[in-house]
Amino acid sequence: MKKKIMVVDDDPENNISLKAGLEEMDPEYEVLCADSAKQCFEILDDQIPNLILLDIMMPEVSGWEVIKKLKKSTKWKDIPIVFLSARSDSVAKGAGEFLGEDYIEKPYEIADLKRRIDKILCKIS
Fold it and tell me: Which pTM value belongs to this model?
């Protein structure tokens, strides 16, 4: 059974490259892309991913607000969150590691990202 990974990032190029890179590295991955918080929750109404890769700095609704809403929902609260962000400050990193399963700074190596995703998915299976 495929592992669904949702990418929530307002940059369409990041979504496309993550989808292509992860699905090429592991045919068991199915990557769902959302370019906004609104689209993220629309997708979540229909399907629950095994993990969400969440950008912090997005217009309108930030990644911080998205995780807050996810954690309040009985339906979504247990989905592991990995923050992907260009923010490299210690406050964002500390908060991201506390609120999510991992915090990964952009730019990142796709192989390292896959390794970290696999480690999280192994813990929850």
Answer: 0.94
